[in-house]
Amino acid sequence: MDPISQSESILERLIFRNRPAMLILFFLISLVLGYQAMGLKPDASFEKMIPGSHPYIQNFMSHREDLAGLGNSIRIAVEARDGDIFTAEYQELLKQVTDEVFFIPGVDRSALKSLWTPNVRWKEVTEEGFVGGAVIPNDYDGSDNSLEQLRQNTLRSGQVGRLVANDFKSSIIHAPLFDINPETGARLDYQAFSAQLEEVIRDKYQTDQFQIHITGFAKVVGDLIEGASEVVMFFLLALIITAILLYLYTRCLRSALVALSCSMLAVIWQLGLLHSLGYGLDPYSMLVPFLVFAIAVSHGVQIINGITMESAQGAEPLAAARRSFRSLYIPGLTALFSDGIGFITLMVIDIAVIQELAVAAAIGVAVVVLTNLLLLPVLMSYLSISPKALSHVAAQATANSLAQQQVEGRIAKRSLWTLFQGFTRPRTAMVTVVVAGLLFAFGVNISRDLKIGDLDPGTPELRPDSRYNLDNAFMTSNYSTSSDIFVVMVETEAEQCASFENLDLIDRFQWEMANVKGVQSALSLADVAKSTLSGLSEGSLKWHALSRNQYLLNAALAYVPQGMVNAQCSLTPVLIFLNDHKADTLERVISAAELFAKNHNTDSIQFQLAAGNSGIEAATNRVIGTAQYQMLAWVYGVVGLLCLITFRSWRTLVCIIVPLALTSVLCQALMTFLGIGVKVATLPVIALGVGIGVDYGIYIYSRLESYLSQGMALSEAYLLTLMTTGRAVAFTGLTLAIGVGTWLLSPIKFQADMGVLLTFMFLWNMLGALVLLPALAYFLIKPKVISSVMMEGGEGSSSGMHTPALGIAPVQSIDRAQAVDFSEKKEQLFPATEFPEVSKASQHDEVKANDFNDDSNVSKDQNNSGDIKDAIQ
């Protein structure tokens, strides 16, 4: 006997002989983890969103201290709806808002920029030499003269299009952020920070006369976390829908509630463990608890289905629970192992937020093993299935009998299951496989156009009409420098950043980048030098160029705006302002910058990519573009290996994996059609879909294999599979699809996109297991193959699946000669209206025997029975 089968035997005796102790233990664990779950808080970090080992990010992090404001920052635009910014009322409001932002914890006050901060200056050349000062005059008093002076200073500052709108109707407060709150020493709480922006800025100062617009990473995360209440609402809606459908499926309120409670308990345990291990929930992993709930419901339905079928045979609750545990332990454990390890493969992606999502999902799957495979049967061993549910099963048994008669040509009426049974017939199987092949080719062809990164302007995680995206659109349309900034860091030898040769090369690079499609404008140290040299020549445009005279260049760069050069004059950034951060725009910019760097980098000057929010996103896109194929290879490799180990047959592996692969390819094609790019938010979806979808294939094939091992024809075996496990798989797929389908109504576009993709994958994985798997089995799986595998497995089948449902007793591995002939036993398999009675004494003897039997996969007192009905009775 293999180790998995041995663990089944040991666990069954351990659990069911110590049920009270098990329940007390689970209760105490639930109390502890429930308390821990209450302390779980949303958690987000700028650094968690970036691929730390990518060269772009390493370049940025090594120069981070010299690039203040070019990483994580926010921009607040104060707009005058009537008039322009040169009014006393507007300037007083701007001053107050600047002061408020200055004192918000987490803001880098030394790098804060506004018309009211002293680091925003103007300069000009006069007959007396250079003159300049802060943009706000020292003697500003709000009078007409001081406002006119402010206007002149603003025009001379070079801030029009950057801090001041092109139409002079708004100006920006630019606030770089620390990752650590300097007041608490803890990581910056983006939820609290965003809420503070709303409370002390927007709510306090926005009026009919003045409008506030806020953009930046911190605000995006804050808005997503704020929308968490919407996520919870849709989770509750999905929970209610699942509960209703589960009751309609089982027709037993107590079993529906127990299955639902165990699934919810899995979520509570997951959240409690995450908090205990020091994790939080960031905006991109908030949907993981629902996926854990979905997996738990999927396995819970299988357990309840098995117990109901056993109870319909007359088994008492304890015997029904034990038999159901035996029949589903190994396929359930295999499926959950596949889920968990599949999720763990996301760890290959070097982005912390995805790695934490992988940990959260894997923890959730691990607790499902405990709450649904172990706790659920124990709870149901104390509860009986309601008479209403048993009557419902009896009615289904009658329908099944009629369905079998239809197979034999006695009646013309076709049931749903006999329609699905048709996929095991030669012609239908051939058509199904051919159609699947065509769909696969179609999906591959369409998915070649799948883009990496964002495909829409603004923040695609939010709706286009969301407040944030409207604010971002305002910034882009009114300023020459958008909020999408791509920064190339130019590194030189110490004190050589202002040499003519280096500045000339920087100027050439800036010109090339400014002419790339999608680039709005560019700014570098060369601009500062040229503007100053032109000013020294009475503003003549003929002199708006770099001088070869190094002394003139040095004089021109006597004063350089903050952030344009470091203290050693060994680093200067080139700021490239983009129209948007779409995938195509970033790819064009990266290609042009890398080509220039490749051709011009020397020992004395290096053009290093990349900083700025768009530079960081470009690095993220590069990592995701590579990681998506690594992730798929790992997911399918691990899932395939587990299936191969469990079923010991490459044919079985093909039957289970091919439907999953078809769904993955079609999901990528759907993403292309809907304009959803592969990014941090969407990359894990395919892995999660594969993890959940493999459950369907494992359960279907395990049940099918157990019937084929008895010598049944494929068509007959698959019909029985559909009537038992197939019903549960179809119910689970439809229920989960309906539940996540409600996400389409979410105001958070990220959640709505996940709803579309997960609904698609739930349905297609279900259909693949019910339609494509039997068609492949027709060509690949033969009874002699099953018999051979079963004999090699010794006493336990390769899948560990037994067949207690529909009147079929657990049967040990047998060959054709020993198999029970299905046609002779059809009346026993499909009783007209009633199920055979099982005496309480025989059940008691069976349970007692199993307590002392090492091989408890099947009761030893059933092994010598040649008749299935006698084996049960």
Could you describe the 3D structure shown?
With 873 residues, this protein is α+β, with helices and mostly antiparallel strands. It has helices spanning 3-16, 19-38, 55-62, 88-102, 144-157, 190-205, 217-226, 228-250, 253-276, 288-312, 317-344, 352-380, 387-407, 416-421, 426-447, 467-478, 500-514, 525-536, 550-556, 583-600, 612-647, 650-674, 683-708, 714-741, 749-780, 783-792, 826-829, 840-851, 868-872, and strands at 73-80, 121-126, 129-134, 170-176, 210-216, 485-492, 519-523, 571-578, 605-611. Strand 2 (121-126) and strand 3 form a beta hairpin. The protein is elongated, with a radius of gyration of 34 Å.
- Read across the widest sheet, the strand sequence of neighbours is 7-8-6-9
Q: Proportion of β residues?
A: 5-15%
Low-confidence stretches: 407-413, 787-873
Broad shape? elongated
Count the E strands: 9
First CA to last CA: what distance?
27 Å
Overall pLDDT score: 80
Structural class: alpha+beta
* Radius of gyration from the alpha-carbon trace, in angstroms: 34 Å
Measured as a percent range, the helix fraction is 55-70%
Report the sheet with the most strands, covering strand number, pairing sense and barrel closure. 4 strands, antiparallel
Count the helices. How many? 29
Give a nutshell description of this structure.
With 873 residues, the chain is of the alpha+beta class. It contains 29 helices and nine strands.
